[in-house]
Specification:
alpha+beta; Alpha-Beta Plaits; 2 domains; six-stranded antiparallel sheet; four-stranded mixed sheet; 12 strands; globular
Length: 229
């Protein structure tokens, strides 16, 4: 069992990004939970969508081995986000164990069309999913719910944190990358890679089949990582 935490629109043009906040929240939660990853989800790129940079939202994956109290977890994450509130941001927070097909599809739609707060609120309410505005105009609830849906779908986004991967610097063997917490290494065509040297400092595995998969291509003597959405 896992817990999905989605967050979006927590920054402004001068502040740290939502990715940094998500990793900070993950670090705090790791005191009591096993953090399975922090995932970046790319949403619709469109001039009609107000965003700080690239309109991406973030999701945290937590292992739920003990049937955690989601209400208490929501209060904890909410307080962490509000404690680092950035003026001008419009943050939203979503937490759930279950992301039914409608929520997965909402995430996919958020990658290709404009959605509204009302649509997000209605969908979350219908499925009993915690979804809350945490300031500003609250538009971040759209991206927060979408991040949960896309991550639950298992085949979208890329890990900005998984295992000990961010501690690796420079060229590393495939074996070392796997030991750091990546589930697999593959070519863009899906062929497994079992040996070689990867430039690990730029490695951000894709989420594929619910797994953290490093997609690499050969460049000279090293395997160069690709950043895929």
């Amino acid at each position: 069992m896992v817990i999905y935490i989605g967050m979006d629109d927590t920054d402004n043009a001068e502040s740290r990004g939502t990715g940094a906040l998500a990793r900070n929240v993950a670090a705090e939660l790791s005191k009591d939970y096993r953090v399975l990853g922090v995932i970046r989800q790319q949403l619709l790129r469109d001039p009609r969508v107000p965003c700080t940079k690239n309109n991406s939202s973030k999701a945290l994956l937590l292992e739920d081995g003990d049937g955690s109290d989601l209400a208490a977890l929501a209060v904890r994450v909410r307080d962490l986000m509000l404690g680092d509130f950035q003026p001008g941001s419009d943050p939203g927070l979503c937490i759930t164990r279950e992301a039914p097909a409608e929520v997965v599809e909402f995430g996919r739609r958020a990658q290709r069309e404009l959605l509204t707060k009302a649509q997000a609120q209605e969908l979350a309410a219908r499925h009993g999913i915690y979804l809350e505005e945490l300031g500003g105009d609250g538009m971040g609830i759209i991206g927060a719910l979408a991040a949960v849906g896309l991550t639950a779908g298992g085949d979208a986004g890329r890990y900005i944190q998984v295992g000990e991967l961010r501690s690796l610097v420079g060229p590393q063997t495939v074996e070392r990358v796997l030991a750091a917490g990546v589930d697999g290494v593959e070519t863009p065509e899906g062929e497994p890679v079992t040996s070689g040297t990867i430039e690990a400092g730029r490695l951000r595995p894709a989420r594929r089949g619910g797994r953290a998969v490093a997609i690499v291509q050969q460049e000279g003597d090293v395997l160069s990582p690709l950043k895929l959405d």
